[in-house]
């Protein structure tokens, strides 16, 4: 099984699970909210933050942008998409803020221009969103940056995943089992795909969850997930399409704690008698 280095963190079998707190668009276009979410991820013990970057007029058609849609930013889909998009000044501040707090950040880039935009910050990896898995040009453009890539596989068939892996190559690749429903029902998560993908590709495999609870994400670690990604929010009742499928402060803090407890509990697989068992053995066993 290959391993991938993201910044100064090694990701793969035998390494601590790499926990990604996805801010996505839960900042609602407000840099101060983004900073509070970065603080939350750091306090919780996450390894990294993830944002989403789009060149709005490239990712969406004029027809789509012209559609009426009420939001805090205006009455059209265009108003919403531009309102949620951080640009250079905001990302410069995000870069500085994450560096000061010693936490990794990167982004899902939905188009080639966004890849080039994010590359100026020398991020340690890139994410391919599930919606972009079948965009060969984007995959090749991202791979040309010669950085590790995290590939989400929601809304994708095995044949589509096979093709994406072929385009990207397996070097410095992490594949995430994902279901693209928001929030996801538990019978949609299909965690058993995690060991299947591990065996099939021989690369680190993780899990990007959109469910409301914690047990399934912890179970993914037991099944071999080297990466866990969950959306985070300051308040699940906040305005925004992804807030309900996110973890609030207590949720992300508890999730990190439980993943670390599970890692400790897994041990090394060698059956042994522990020193603390000896007095119990002496007390309870009738024969030596």
Descriptive terms for the model:
single chain; 288 residues; alpha/beta; TIM Barrel; eight-stranded parallel sheet; two-stranded antiparallel sheet; 12 strands; globular
Q: How is this structure best described in words?
A:
- The protein is an alpha/beta fold and about 290 residues long.
- It has one domain (about 5-285): TIM Barrel (Alpha-Beta Barrel), CATH 3.20.20.70.
- It is built from 12 helices and 12 strands.
- It has an 8-stranded parallel β-sheet. The protein has a two-stranded antiparallel sheet with strand order 1-2.
- Helix 10 (about 215-220) links the parallel strand 11 and strand 12 (about 225-230).
- Helix 1 packs parallel to helix 5 (about 90-100) and helix 1 runs parallel beside helix 11.
- It is globular and about 80 Å long.
Briefly summarize what is shown.
The chain has 288 residues and is α/β, with parallel strands linked by helices.
């Amino acid at each position: 099984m290959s391993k991938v280095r993201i910044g100064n963190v090694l990701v793969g079998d035998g390494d601590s699970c790499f926990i990604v707190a996805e801010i996505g668009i839960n900042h609602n276009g407000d840099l101060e909210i983004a900073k509070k979410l970065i603080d939350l991820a750091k306090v919780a013990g996450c390894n990294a933050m993830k944002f989403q970057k789009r060149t709005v007029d490239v990712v969406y058609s004029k027809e789509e942008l012209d559609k009426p849609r009420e939001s805090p930013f205006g009455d059209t889909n265009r108003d919403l998409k531009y309102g949620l998009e951080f640009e250079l000044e905001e990302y410069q501040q995000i870069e500085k803020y994450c560096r000061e707090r010693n936490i990794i950040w990167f982004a899902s880039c939905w188009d080639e221009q966004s890849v080039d935009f994010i590359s100026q910050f020398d991020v340690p990896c890139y994410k391919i969103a599930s919606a972009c898995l079948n965009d060969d040009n984007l995959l090749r453009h991202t791979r040309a940056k010669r950085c590790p890539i995290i590939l989400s596989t929601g809304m994708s068939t095995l044949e589509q995943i096979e093709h994406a892996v072929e385009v990207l190559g397996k070097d410095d690749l992490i594949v995430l089992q994902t279901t693209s429903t928001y929030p996801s029902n538990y019978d949609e998560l299909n965690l058993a795909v995690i060991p299947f993908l591990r065996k099939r590709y021989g690369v680190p495999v993780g899990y990007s969850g959109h469910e409301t609870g914690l047990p399934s994400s912890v179970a993914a670690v037991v099944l071999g997930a080297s990466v866990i990604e969950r959306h985070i929010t300051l308040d699940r009742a906040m305005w925004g399409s992804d807030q309900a499928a996110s973890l609030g402060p207590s949720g992300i803090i508890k999730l990190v704690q439980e993943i670390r407890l599970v890692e400790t509990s897994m041990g090394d697989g060698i059956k042994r008698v522990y020193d603390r068992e000896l007095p119990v053995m002496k007390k309870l066993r009738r024969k030596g």
